[in-house]
Each structure stands twice: as C-alpha cells, then as structure tokens.
Amino acid sequence: MAMNRPLKKPIPLRTDAAKSTSLRATVRDQSGAGKTKIGEILSKEGQINHNQLKHAVDYQQKHGGMLSHILLRLRYIEEDTILNLLSRSYNYPPIRSQQLNPEKDVLQLLSYETAKANMAFPVSLKEETLRVAMVEPTDTALVESLQAAVKRNLSIGVCTEKEILEAFKTHYKISDEEYKQYFDLAKDDEDEEAVKVVEDFGSLVSEAEGEIEMQSVREDVEEKEAFLANDAPIIKLVNGILVKAITDGISDIHIEPFEHSLQVRYRLDGALFRSMNLPITIKSAITSRVKILSGLDIAERRLPQDGRIKMNIGKKKNVDIRVSILPTLFGESIVMRILDRSQLNVDLTRLGFELDTFKSIQRCISRPYGLLLVTGPTGSGKTTTLYSILNALNTEDTKILTVEDPVEFNFRGINQVLVREKIGLTFAAALRSFLRQDPDVIMIGEIRDLETAEIAIKAAMTGHLVFATVHTNDAPSTISRLVDIGIPSYMLASSVTMVLSQRLIRRLCPKCKVEVDNKDAEELEALGFSKDEIPDLKIYRPKGCAACNGAGYKGRVGLYELMEVTDDVEKAINANLPEDQLRKISIREGMLTLRDVGLNKIREGVTSVEEVARNTAITKESLPDYLVNPNIEEYQDREVIIREGNTDKDFFMLVKGALYVVKGGKIISQIVQPGEYFGEMSAVTGDPRSATIISNKRSTVKRYPGDKIPDIIENHPNVAKHLFEVMANRLNHADRQIYRLLTEKGRSE
Ligand SMILES: [Zn+2]
To answer: Which run of H or E residues covers position 182?
Structure first.
C-alpha cells in the first residue's frame, strides 16, 4: 500500500478470517449483475446512452462475452474509455503496457487459461498481495473467480483490452492464431453482415415479413418490436439497404411510410428515385432497427430524433450515416444521409470533375503528405475546391490548420487563421507556428512569395498534406512560376503531388438552350475540334427565358486541368524542362487541358462555344520529340557533317562552335550563329547537297530528321518560320555574293 497513489484496497482471500464488508459483498454477488456493472457505470457517466447499453446487454445475453468487449466492438466506446473512467473517477489505478512485465514466478501465479477467462494479467507480487491488471475490474464475479484461482490477496488496477492482449502475446507466447481469435470473435458479429451485398431483396423481405407474422401473436408490443429489430431477417434487410446505398454511391436513403406501403427511395446525383416497396407490416421493426443502430430511443415515436450510424465496410472503409427520424401521418419517416469519406463528400463530387480527374484527386489527397496546388484566376472557384477537399478530409483524427486571407467559410473542427499583415501575421509567420501545432493537413490561402513557398515545401516534405493556391493560368506554368520565385526544381519534383488548374464557366439554361444549325466549321476547328467530328457535332447557344431571367445561362460548371505528378512528370520537373514539354508529358500521362475539358462540355451540350473560347486558351502546340530531343552530335576539327553531292536529307542546327561551307573545294562562307539551321534545302527540294559543311575546330550540332520537314511546315509554324527565315537570309546573302561577283567580273573584263 505504500505506493505513490492509493491502490484499490486489496481484496483478501475468501478463506481469510477477517472478512471485510467489501469482500462479503463481492463474494455473495452470484446474481450476475457484475457482468453489466461496467455498462451501468458508463451509462451513468454519460459515456454511452441507454439504448446503446440495452443493445449491448441484449447482445451479451445472446452471445455471451464481456460487456466491455461488446461495447468496444460496437464502437460505442473507445479503447481507453473504461481505463480513463475507472482510473479518474473510481479509484482503480491505471496499469499501462510497460508495467505488464512481471517476474517469471509472478507470471506463473496466473495460468493463461485463467488470465484469458478473466481478461486479467499479473503485474507484481508484494508479500501476499498480487497486483493484477484487468479489463473489467468492476465485474465482481470475475474478481472472485480470479481470486479463487490464485489464492492471494488481490490489488486490482485497470488496463485496456488491447494492452492485455499484447501482454498475452508477449508473455504467454500465444500463437498468432490464438491472438487473432480475440478479434475473430468480432467477425461473427452481426455488424460484419453489413459487408454482404444483398442479391435478392425480394426473398429477404418475404422472410422478414413472415417472421413478423409469426411473432405478431405476442402481446407485449414494445418488447416484440425490440426483439424483432434484433431479428436476423430485419437486421439483414436494413443492412442490405445501407450496403446497397453505399456501394451504389447513393447520398441519401429515404424510408417513408405511406398508407399501404413502406417506400424506399435513394438520392443519386441530386435526384431521387424509388428503389423498393416494402410491406407496411415491417415498418415498426425497420424503424426500431435503424433506431438501435443509430443509438436512438426506440420507445419515442412522437418526436423527431437525430442520430448517427457508424458502419465498417470491408477492412478500412468507415462510413458515417446521419439519421433523421420524423413522425408523419402514417408513421416515422427515416432519412439517412451517407457521409462516405472514402468516396469523398457530395460537395467534391458535385464540382463537375471528369471521372479520371476525380480519381486522380482522390489518389493525391489520400496520400499522407505532399504539396497540392490549386490555381486559376480570381473567381475560378479555387476556394470552393479547397474547402471541399478539406471537408472531405475533416475527420476527428485529422488536425487541419488553415491560413487564409480572408477566411471565407467557417468549418467545424478546422483551425482557421486569418492573415493580418499589419500586425505581422503573414502567411509565412502563421505557417512557421503551424509546424509546432502538430497538424496533419495544412491549407495556405495563397503562395505569393519565396518564404511562404519554402515553408510550404518544407512542411510537405516532412510528412504533412499541404494545400495551397497559386495565381497562375494553368497547371504546367505553376511549376515555372514557383521556379521563378526561387524554389529549386528538384524540391518541387519531390514535394508537389498535383497541380489543379480551374475555371468556372456558365452553364447553358437547360430550359431554353437552342441547337446551332449553321455551325462555323472553321471556328470549331480553330477551337480544337477535329475535322471529322464537326459535321455530326451538336452544339448549343443561349436564348433566354423566364427560368434564366433572359440570360440564356443558369448556374456554373467547373473546368479542371489536373496535372498529377507521376514518375515521368516528376522527372520532367526535376530536369527543369520548359513549360511546353512539361505540358506535353503531363498530357501523355493523362492530363486533360482546360480547353480539352471545355470541348467536352460543349459536346455534352452543357455550355456554349463562346463560354469555352472566352475562358480557356488553346494550349501551344506542343513540339514533337524529334524537335524537342533531337540527336546531339559532336564534331572535331575538319570533320565533315554534310558532303557535297550526297542525297541524304537530314537538317541541322548549330549549337556550339563554327562551321565552314565549302563548294568546289573553296570555303564560300561560315556558319557561326548558334541556333542557325543548315542543310534544310535538300530536305525541302529533294536535290543532292549543294555544299560541304565542315567543322571549324570543335562544334556541336543538333540533327533533325529531314523526312519530317513537311510535318514541321504543316504543324509547327513557329519552327517552320525560323527555318525559312534562315533560308531566306542565306539566299539573300548568296544573291548579294553573286551580284558582287558578277559586277566585279564585269569590271575586270
Ligand atoms: Zn432559360
């Protein structure tokens, strides 16, 4: 007893002469009340509600097991709820895992079988008092059986189930199978049935209905329904309805009683549709079952109630269901809103992402760290996107900090900081403090300067998910913008996981939009449509009606360009490739440009040509590989690059050094300007080489395939223009030379 904090008074052996009153009370308790005592304590302390207790006790009566274990498994309490409660308010000393390390002889006092049966573990022996850790020390029957087994005075502390199981594993060396069995128990639980998708609702409904008719002879209605609600067919049916909704991506389930039927409707993408009609006879059983699941009062039928169901589907997927019950004329109407965070929130799904873009976003935000950038002009909906993402990530176990200017919307559970430059609370200053606040997710209103960018990248590289906006026009240019403000490209490559660029464009009013009958094929082609699709393309224009106040447009839709930093994109960023090439690689990796997405919206009849043309730019024609990455060749002094009379057709560009142009054995000119093309004449005319090109000392040139000249002229006007300028200059030069030679010759004659 000479401990730092008072231990629970040791319970003397039953055979001791001195029988204390507490001992007698313990020993005589044969009623089994101890089995539910922890439940009563938890209920009294407000840790669980009455219905949860009832549900757990019912379950215990049916399947056995310790109440704490059942409550934990039903997720009504947390792993350490009992430990905290009993140690803080009931004077049971807490025993933590590091104390579960008994001497060998102490361990031998308690066999594994006894330990398992009582969920207890020996800690230490002091004189004749054995200190024991128990999961449920309030169960007097367990304490008694433990005492009978060890024949010692007991000093009992409280420990979590998890820690005791770990101790079993470490000290009793139980097999993995044995260990898993503690968790396997949970798998037989009814909640696991929820995972199953119901194949045949019809037979399940009949089964449930039959069950009700059989039971309806019972007189006590209250009891009957509580019982029925726990009956297998009803459980299966309700679980089936929930699972079907979740797997189908439904946002709301409506279960509505009418005079002769119970209607189930699902809301998908904002529209309700009827899923099934259930017999009205099972109305009360279904309602009761939903109430039990959501911890509501089964007996209360006259007042509205709100509750929540937590469901586990598969291993990791947690789904929250918000339940609202409203008494209506024909009974209680149930509406369940599915808050499926793994599927993201309704909000994100309603922003109008292309399916692939949406999947990429999900991939990026489900990573534990990285820098995710959202970009676009003011009013392009960047904040809405970020908020939707944060909202999707906003769970109890995630700490989210934001620094914003201004704070546009308040979130519950998110710590939002308002930038106040006047008092020195800048983005960077707030961010520095953030890192000491142990966040999981950080959102930065805007990256404007190097300092903010640096801290954001540092945070992303040290295990945080960091979101920020940058003021740029498209995804690839965001990278160059950050390089411009001073971030090394290799740091961007290893921290940025996605860049989302966006625009908001107006939606055509569906009530009055009209199909355009005289399409301007040239305009459509210039916009980016392919020649082949234009004849069959249906495009619409705004007209104006009462519904849209004459605007012809109603509501807006987002266009999103998502650059996911895949391995190849990362390499491109790391290599500091020009924007054009980065864009090209991103497109190859699946990025749809803003313009591409805009064209899709026109094809879908969602918006007009004008809206897309005004809000998106056609991305610069990306150069083909042979132009971006031509062969680079090194030549030594006097080495021949092109030989007069040959019929090869490649053309070249001088990168470094100088070249001689030799004709008939005489040097007729030199090429010294880096960037100057040569040898292109033969590629254009098909004639043999008209001169020999020799390296003057060492030189570096790029070789381009000559058979691509027609392709370049047709598709890459900028490159073709440069080529022709070089040719024209050379022709001019030659022309002047010839003129000079002729005039000199004429004079000499
Ligand atoms: Zn209209």
So the answer is: helix 176-187
- What mean pLDDT is predicted for residues 207-228? 52
- pLDDT tens digits, 691-712: 999 999 999 898 888 888 877 7
Rounded to a whole number, what is the largest CA-CA distance in the chain? 147
The stretch 304-330 carries a mean pLDDT of: 79
Q: What is the pLDDT of residues 61-89, one digit of tens each?
A: 888 888 988 888 777 888 888 998 898 88
Give CA separation, 506 vs 20, 24, 510, 722, in Å.
82, 79, 12, 40
Provide the 8-state DSSP code for 485. Answer: T
Write down the pLDDT at residue 10.
Answer: 53
For residue 558, report the distance from its CA to the centre of ligand 1, in Å. Answer: 20
Take residue 94 and report the two structure tokens written for it: 């807490």
Q: What is the mean pLDDT of residues 447-456?
A: 92
Output the CA 545–ligand 1 centroid distance in Å.
4
> How far is the C-alpha of 140 from the C-alpha of 161, rounded, in Å?
18
Distance 514 CA to ligand 1 centre (A): 10
User: Distance, CA 612 to ligand 1 centroid (Å)?
Assistant: 19
Query: What is the 350 CA–ligand 1 centroid distance (Å)?
Result: 22
For residue 745, what pLDDT is reported? 66
CA dihedral sign, ordered 177, 182, 185, 189: negative
CA dihedral 675, 737, 670, 691 (to 10 degrees): 90
Question: Do 341 and 392 form a contact (C-beta atoms < 8 A)?
Answer: yes
- From CA 574, how far away is CA 562, in angstroms rounded? 19
* Of 701, 693, 636, nearest in space to 670 by CA: 693
Helix runs in 316-381, H state only: 346-349, 355-365
> Is the N-terminal amide bond of 406 cis, ω within 30° of 0?
yes
Whole-number Å distance, alpha carbon 540 to ligand 1 midpoint, is 12
pLDDT, one tens digit per residue, over 189-205 is: 444 444 456 667 777 77
Q: Are 149 and 110 in contact, with CB atoms under 8 Å apart?
A: yes
Q: Is pLDDT at 469 greater than 90 in this prediction?
A: yes
DSSP code of residue 560: E
Distance 517 CA to ligand 1 centre (A): 19
Question: Distance, CA 606 to ligand 1 centroid (Å)?
Answer: 13
Minimum mean pLDDT range among 264-273, 298-307, 540-549, 659-668: 264-273
Distance 604 CA to ligand 1 centre (A): 17
d(CA 332, CA 205): 19
Centroid of ligand 1 to alpha carbon of 542 (angstroms): 8
Non-local (6+) Cβ contacts of 478 within 8 A are 373, 375, 470, 472, 499, 501
For residues 475 and 499, the answer to whether their CB atoms sit within 8 Å is yes
Cβ contact 37:86 at 8 Å: no
- Contact in structure between 275 and 230 (CB atoms under 8 Å): no
Ligand 1 centroid to residue 553 C-alpha, Å = 6
Q: Which residue has the tokens 């969602």?
A: 606
pLDDT tier at 217, thresholds 50, 70, 90:
very low
pLDDT band at 448; cut points 50, 70, 90: confident
What's the CA-to-centroid distance between 129 and ligand 1, angstroms?
85
Give the SS3 label for residue 107: helix
Mean pLDDT to the nearest integer, 623-631 = 66
Q: How far is the CA of 357 from the centre of ligand 1 (A)?
A: 30
Q: Please tell me what DSSP assigns to residue 98.
A: G
Å from CA of 554 to ligand 1 middle:
7
The separation between CA 355 and the C-alpha centre of its own chain, rounded to angstroms, equals: 14
Residue 595 contacts by C-beta under 8 Å, 6 or more apart in sequence?
A: 527, 528, 612, 616, 617, 618, 619
User: Per residue in 140-179, pLDDT tens?
Assistant: 888 888 888 888 888 999 999 989 998 998 899 888 888 8
Residue 648 · residue 671 · CB < 8 Å: no
Q: Is the pLDDT of residue 442 over 90?
A: yes
